[in-house]
């Protein structure tokens, strides 16, 4: 045997080196987690994390998805009421309505806004007067969230979708001349407030 070792000395040395390197690797792999744990740098794997949660009885809160109803109006392919879930954006609901039409003013709508329950999304036409980039999207809400067109100032009226300085002045002039609005439909008596304009306003205005 010694004669064989002597004749194959080179192979024996290589095998010995490989054994030493393998032993070093195995020992290092075993000791590294222990050192990291002592230094506070150790992080459990996904499987270990699940075990820790189960053993310690830690409860991880679940994200509950709430079903929302959103009313989509204006320059979309199929206007109507659509279902949405918590976290959905305006663009998601508009896509469910078939997307915008060729004549839609996409820049007037905040497509990145998160939707809320009872929200009204109105996509105006190109050239249609809008107060700002965000007025085309508004939440319906309750009566307290609506603008009272009998009491609102010009500035407050101009926060309504499609109402600028000229239309807000017309509303104030009408109520000063004819008295308070009796119903929200009375606003259509003012020039420039047709059925299309009323459709996008009716969820945002009140007379009481």
UniProtKB/TrEMBL annotation:
<keyword id="KW-1133">Transmembrane helix</keyword>
<dbReference type="InterPro" id="IPR051675">
    <property type="entry name" value="Endo/Exo/Phosphatase_dom_1"/>
</dbReference>
<feature type="domain" description="Helix-hairpin-helix DNA-binding motif class 1">
    <location>
        <begin position="155"/>
        <end position="174"/>
    </location>
</feature>
<dbReference type="GO" id="GO:0006281">
    <property type="term" value="P:DNA repair"/>
</dbReference>
<feature type="transmembrane region" description="Helical">
    <location>
        <begin position="12"/>
        <end position="31"/>
    </location>
</feature>
<dbReference type="InterPro" id="IPR010994">
    <property type="entry name" value="RuvA_2-like"/>
</dbReference>
<dbReference type="Pfam" id="PF10531">
    <property type="entry name" value="SLBB"/>
</dbReference>
<protein>
    <recommendedName>
        <fullName>Helix-hairpin-helix DNA-binding motif class 1 domain-containing protein</fullName>
    </recommendedName>
</protein>
<keyword id="KW-0472">Membrane</keyword>
<dbReference type="GO" id="GO:0015628">
    <property type="term" value="P:protein secretion by the type II secretion system"/>
</dbReference>
<dbReference type="InterPro" id="IPR003583">
    <property type="entry name" value="Hlx-hairpin-Hlx_DNA-bd_motif"/>
</dbReference>
<dbReference type="Pfam" id="PF12836">
    <property type="entry name" value="HHH_3"/>
</dbReference>
<dbReference type="InterPro" id="IPR004509">
    <property type="entry name" value="Competence_ComEA_HhH"/>
</dbReference>
<dbReference type="InterPro" id="IPR019554">
    <property type="entry name" value="Soluble_ligand-bd"/>
</dbReference>
<keyword id="KW-0812">Transmembrane</keyword>
<feature type="domain" description="Helix-hairpin-helix DNA-binding motif class 1">
    <location>
        <begin position="185"/>
        <end position="204"/>
    </location>
</feature>
<dbReference type="GO" id="GO:0003677">
    <property type="term" value="F:DNA binding"/>
</dbReference>
<dbReference type="GO" id="GO:0015627">
    <property type="term" value="C:type II protein secretion system complex"/>
</dbReference>
